[in-house]
Amino acid sequence: MTVPPARTGGTDGPAWFGPARTAGLLGPAAAVEALAAALRAGPDPEDCPPRTAVSVPGGELLLMPAARGPYAGVKIAGVAPGNPGRGLPRITGGYLLLDGPTLRPLALLDGPALTALRTPAVSALAVRHLTPAGRPLRLVLFGSGPQAYGHLDALLAVRPLARAVVVARDQTGAGELAAYARGLGVPARTGGPGDVAGADLVVCCTSAREPLFDGGLVRADATVVAVGSHEPTARETDTGLVRRSAVYVESRAAALAEAGDLLIPLAQGAIGPGHIAGTLADLVAGRAPADGARSCPQLFKSVGTAWEDLAVAVAVFRAAGTSSAT
């Protein structure tokens, strides 16, 4: 793809990175590496400012600020559940990247495009540390929207896939995603929740509010990734799976404030706050087990945090040949 030159965020105003430009500048593999580098450099994601959520007539507005080193930034995202019925994206908004020392605007990025790149990259980074290398994985993928496509691309950047089974309410969408996977060289078909019994990797990126499958079907050596919700009352996985899994999160503070997959079992008394085995930073730093025999499923629950948006936005900005300057 030919990428037009970006403005540098000087006197003419911040550079604009639309959806096509963002995707053209930074691929899934580079986004994964940007996140890993940010975690290795610190600071601790537990110190990242919490997300602010405000209910509005159309849905929800989310404010996600972060600052690290020479950059700062804030994402303003809209979640509009009624938009798909209007033929519009469910996620809207934008990301404002700032020079850290002066807070001068440097760039404005399309919010959905940034999220579509960031969220799958976070999942892929976790998968790289929670699944064995060198063996193609049998994937079951729940969802058929932009995040499902993004996750398929990102997973292929870190692991080979032996096959993919797509499970979605929209059967037409599921078939189209399966065809897309076949176009990438992955044998793929549509299926149902019971297919998790044969999966090495289960990835959930849906808007579901109730568990998508029976967690008892998940094999002890499988990995499950759930990214669809940041709401305390919504979840994609059931209590039984969470209780018998080693659970990893981006941030304990964020997960225990927003992750319904954990908060609902916690309220039921099925687990305690100490049930979380580690964080993504622990995995990247080698402080948590990544290989070897598995005695239970590995579950990575993501809610999305502001430092991730900043890390990927900076990587996009730098890929355009620009830099932060005071």
TrEMBL record:
Gene3D superfamilies: NAD(P)-binding Rossmann-like Domain, ornithine cyclodeaminase, domain 1
Domain of life assignment: Bacteria
GO cellular component: cytoplasm
Name of the protein in its database record: Ornithine cyclodeaminase
Organism: Streptomyces subrutilus
